[in-house]
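seq:
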Amino acid sequence: MNEKQVLVIDACEKTRQQLNALLTRDGMGGRTAYADSLNAAISANYHPDIIILSTALSNVGITASAAMLMSYYTGVPIIISCSKEEENAAMEAIGAGAQDYFFADNTDSCTLQKMMQCALVRAKMVNDYKRLFDDTPGAMYIYDVDTLEFLQVNNATLLQYGYTREELLQLTTVAIRPEEELDRYYATLRKLNAVYFDAGRWRHMKKDGTVFHVHIYSHATMFEGRNARVVMAVDIDEKVKIEAANNMLTERVNKQGERMENILSSIKESVWSCYAETLVVTYSNNASLDIFGYAPDELIGKSHTLMNNIHPEDRKSVDEKIARIWETKADTIYFRIYSKTGDLKHIHTEVILHKDAEGRDLLTGVSTDVTAQLEYQLRIEAQNKKLQEISWMQSHKMRSPVATIMGLVQLLKPEKLDSDTAQIISNILAATQKLDEAIKEVTEHIAVDTQTQSN
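struct:
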């Protein structure tokens, strides 16, 4: 205690002499400063560790005097010196923040020394808690639950809302809320009876009118003898903006996905994806039902539903193509497969190997049912074969008699025939030549048609 600086504020000379005597016995007389008024105590360049405030000097009340000193000498403990008659006033000062009180005319030096030691320890504890409150990085404030007045605010609150401490302590919690939030705020206060309360998300307002989002947590407490709540107001404005942007982006992605799904669902080709190593299907459009007889939900999550239906004669070639795709990265596969209903389908598939968003190898393919085209091709080939047979018959079986007739007619000598017979022979020859030309034309036409259909 001998190293501590004591400031005694007392206008009564007698009391000052008594205190000086007590402090001198403790060896603190040389470290004690005296002021006869509050103004003198505040205006002088004192750096006290502890203050002894007498009730005798105050014309504004001991409680108000203690409050003024505490605001100026932040964290310095105050002990009230009073008479027996002024004990109630001293106790009120303790309620306002003073540490202790003693009777100036009935205290010994040992008692005063212990009182000052205890006051310093309590003040240190209070200062530690106050420092913890003031230096907490999140905005915290204490308000009176009856008047809604701010009772204390920390440094982060000043930064978050843009007020000075003095300004905020003259306001109520209504001042930091936009008008459109007030009805909801008052309704919440009417229902607020929990000790701890997570009030959720709110919109608060800074001094300059900027509105931002906060998450409010509060706890019931007593502060300077008043029913109060301590509040933590977490600034989540950036989080809310990011969430809004993410929600908007998600909505756009979902709409884009719906459009893509509508497109994929409208095409006749089966579009699918599966994991390259396990062949577990991850996606299939609705065309799988028409082509393979399986709805998408019958394929997705399963691995060999379709592979097991491939025609046995084609299974080996399909397996070889899939095995080689790790090198080729893309390939075309033709195979026959039995649908769910047992129909044999001819399938043309274009498949590529790629990675999904998580880096896993995927096979994605487009499978087209070419059964109808193949059957049409087979019919064309059969028709062409028949046309070729007709062409052969035209050029061989039919032209042979015509050639014979033309040869025989030419053997006849017109000059040895009468005029009527000669004319008949001439007509037969002309008709036979036209028939020969017609057969040749038909044969050539069949050849052209056969070539065109084959292409």
